[in-house]
Specification:
The protein is mainly β. Helix content is about 10%, strand content about 30%. The chain has a six-stranded antiparallel β-barrel. Strand 4 and strand 5 form a beta hairpin. The chain is globular and about 45 Å long. It comes from Hypothenemus hampei (Coffee berry borer). GO terms for molecular function: serine-type peptidase activity. InterPro entries: Peptidase_S1_PA (IPR009003), Peptidase_S1_PA_chymotrypsin (IPR043504), Peptidase_S1A (IPR001314), Trypsin_dom (IPR001254), TRYPSIN_HIS (IPR018114).
């Protein structure tokens, strides 16, 4: 069953139950860390990869936390997102700015979005609420992070599952570390998007090094990545920047793809630094449980 058929069935069965509320939980100074526990997250289903600009095709369901944001009206993919719990995903604020939760859905567990036939784990989840970080600046994309809440609980399996949040590494800057980016976005600037999920390895730069490439201030709550000829591109926004703890073979969401100059133009990519927003994420998702690994 292709994406259009999945969307049609989803719209026909439950569209009328959509809510258009915003998340309204505890204030940021009332964080309860009791919802951070010992459990499991962030595994990768290792397979032979089969090409984001300069990237390679992932294995089917290789990254269980990856999601696509799809317009209900057209069925077109416009951004990425990542599962962090059974009701919540993270994405870039600019992806959903001035949109209604009823405008789009989250597609999880998919690989080739043109067919939907290469995995039995693809599923559509409606979004009944979202929250953009309060000081997000649409003119500069500062604080470009948002939380999405699904209308129903996401069904987890080996192939659809949350990534780890970096609670244990909240003070790390990850400079010089290799990280992985994912997306179905354009494979060249203003070019076609990819039907299959792509991955690429890039390196984290120090903010000082990144600043030398930009006139605008690179903020402490941003994290820059770079590799020659490799970059995220349009429609990759909101997707993950993932660091692997190789000693335990687990992936951590340390960045959210945000903005840059073109695609693979020699400028670093600027991403949201997730460790700067962990308190906010916890305070706004107090009904969720997260793993401490």
């Amino acid at each position: 069953m292709g994406l259009k058929e999945i969307l049609f069935l989803a719209i026909f069965t439950v569209a009328e139950s959509l809510e258009t509320t915003t998340i309204n939980y505890k204030t940021e100074n009332q964080i309860n860390f009791a919802n951070v526990t010992q459990c499991d997250c962030g595994w990768r289903n290792v397979q032979n990869s089969l090409q984001i600009v300069g990237g390679d095709e992932t294995g089917v369901n290789e990254y269980p936390g990856m999601a696509a944001l799809i317009y209900l009206s057209s069925g077109l993919l416009f951004c990425g997102a990542h599962i962090i719990s059974d009701r919540y995903l993270l994405t870039a604020a600019h992806c959903i700015y001035n949109k209604s939760p009823s405008d789009f859905v989250a597609l999880v567990g998919d690989h080739d979005i043109s067919t939907g036939g290469d995995t039995a784990y693809s599923a559509i989840y409606y979004i009944n609420a979202y929250e953009i970080y309060p000081t997000y600046d649409s003119s500069t994309d500062a604080n470009d992070i948002a939380i999405l809440r699904t209308s129903t609980q996401i069904t987890f399996s080996t192939y659809v599952a949350p990534i780890c949040l970096p609670f244990k590494y909240a003070t790390y800057d990850f400079s010089s570390q290799p990280v992985t980016i994912l997306g179905w976005g354009q494979i060249e600037f203003s070019g076609p998007t990819s039907n299959v999920l792509l991955k690429a390895e890039v390196q984290v730069l120090t903010n000082a090094n990144c600043q030398s490439s930009y006139a605008q201030v690179v903020l402490s709550q941003e994290i820059c990545t770079f590799a020659n000829g490799i970059d995220s591109c349009q429609a990759d926004s909101g997707g993950p920047v993932m660091w692997t703890n190789i000693s335990i073979a687990r992936l951590y969401l340390i960045g959210i793809i945000s903005h840059g100059v073109g695609c693979a133009t020699g400028y670093p990519g600027i991403n949201v630094r997730v460790t700067s927003f962990l308190n906010w994420i916890l305070s706004r998702t107090s009904d969720a449980s997260y793993c401490y690994m």
